[in-house]
Amino acid sequence: MVKGFQKPITIREAIENIDKNEYLLPAIQRKFVWKPQQIELLFDSIMREYPINSLMMWEITSDKIKEDYKFYSFLRTFKQRYGEMNEALGTRGRTGSFYAVIDGQQRLNSLYIGIKGTYAEKLPRKHWTNSEDNFPPMKLYLEIKNRYTSDSEIDKQYNFKFLRKDQVKEFNKKSQFWFEVGKILTLSKPRDQFLYLQKIGLGDNEHSAILLDRLSSVLNKDTELTYYVEDEQNLDKVLDIFIRTNDGGTKLTFSDLLMSVLTANWPDAREKFNRLIQEVYSYGDFTISSDLILKTTLVLFSNDIKNRVKNFDNDTVNKIIKNWDSIRKSILSTFKMFYCMGFRNKTFPAKSAAIPIILYVYDNKMYNDIVKNKFFENKSAISTNQKIKKWLLLAFLKHVFSGQTDSVLKDIRHIIRKNGDQDFPIEKIIDSSKNNPTKNYSFDSEIVDGLFQTTYGKPDVFFILSLYYPELDYFNQDFHIDHIHPKDKFLDEKYMKSIFSEDTIQWINDNWNCLGNLELLNGEKNESKKDKPLKSWSEENKIPNSFFFVDDDISLRLEDFKEFYSNRVANMKQRLFDLLDNNTR
Predict the structure, then answer these.
(1) Staple partner for 478: which of 273, 333, 366, 523, CB 3.0–4.6 Å?
(2) Is the pLDDT of residue 472 over 70?
(3) Distance (Å, rounded) from C-alpha 437 to C-alpha 512?
(4) Mean pLDDT of all residues in the chain?
(5) Cα separation values, 340 from 203, 385, 579, Å
(6) Is the backbone of residue 533 left (phi > 0), alpha (psi -120 to 50) or beta?
(7) What is the pLDDT of residue 460?
């Protein structure tokens, strides 16, 4: 069939195609979610000749797609909780093409259930036990004996309702007649309708005859379902089409659809992912998503790490399933390590930066040791720990993981795996990126000057200061970002004018809230310092000038702030270049 809009079909033809499994559902589709009232209104709309939105079909001709991708049949009988999932239908070896519904699943399934299926919900005050007594099946009926007068605010002209058998019997005793909608498929001819009405005693009821004739017309011949056929055999392009055309409910992302594909081949995937996400959250409130886990699995097992359906082939999915315990441990222990390093969710701005560390932990089977005391106490382990944290801080400061990161991840993966089971290869990672104009770790004088314009409250302050204090115990102590010379004095306009000239005040106002006047202090020290003058506090606690990165002959009095600030910034810039060992310049 040629791509594009096709000749419309009737509702009856659509139902027949579903019966023959000519229409199937791809794994990306959500489960059926319409309530009985929604289906009733759909049939009311059809009887009133309201248009039904166009459907979109994906014609499947590729043998590879039939073999590798999962398809599901339409739901024939819906049962709350116990019968909400579509049945998988094998298409491997199937000859000829068939159609997967890309847009219109809920409407088509509602039509099918209303005409040929059943709908079961738990009765009030019944237990959630899977039995027909608790979940009696209902069929869709139309009351044809009497003219309908709406008794609610819902705009309906026809009295469609899902009913149980016992309800139908009871209602039909009250001068009503509830006609089972699906029977109209056998009453397509006027004579058949006439004989039926005669049989049930409504042969002289003109209203009944009009309703049956109209129901037969709209379902058997008159209502036209327009549909568009997409013949693209590239799964990723079809997923993109699905995202663009699917407007119902919550918007899906490409990763949502990839998750659906993975779940189709691994039913436990979503539950296991969600459980891991909750486990990670217990450490530092780290918030990760299925996107991160999916990308991690690609980095671990696929040559191509782009978010493409073809990259989650049977081989990759089987590797994920087989190694899930180690994958889970690697992700969880890596975020535990970040927590021990002093990171929290709000100070870990690019979750993709975790993936190379997870890879390093997974490949070297470090997931059982990386957060144990020996990892932090052992000399070589401390070296590894500090290298990892230093790399993370540099990556955050240079925004290496902003925007598209697939090429960055592939390059780092190559280096880590080539390096083998040695220490984390920070120097090789930095060196390999030098020629990348946007994803490098280079800090020239201009960039460093810009860092020192960073003000209190900005996320980068924590990353920069952490480079100066790598030995601090971030896990067992709470560290605050503190103004070295207290800010209350700078905000006291009268006091400032009493000791500084107007030009100096202007210079101080431009700098006192910047990095050159900020430090990391543990909570206990910060509480003892509060708003005390720097000179008094340092003398009381016998703190040397070197603690503040200023020379011994530099005054700590606020009156000498300009000289203090200039000396401190110069020393810190030089210290930063020394910390980087000129590898990133």
Answers:
(1) 523
(2) no
(3) 33
(4) 86
(5) 82, 10, 22
(6) beta
(7) 83
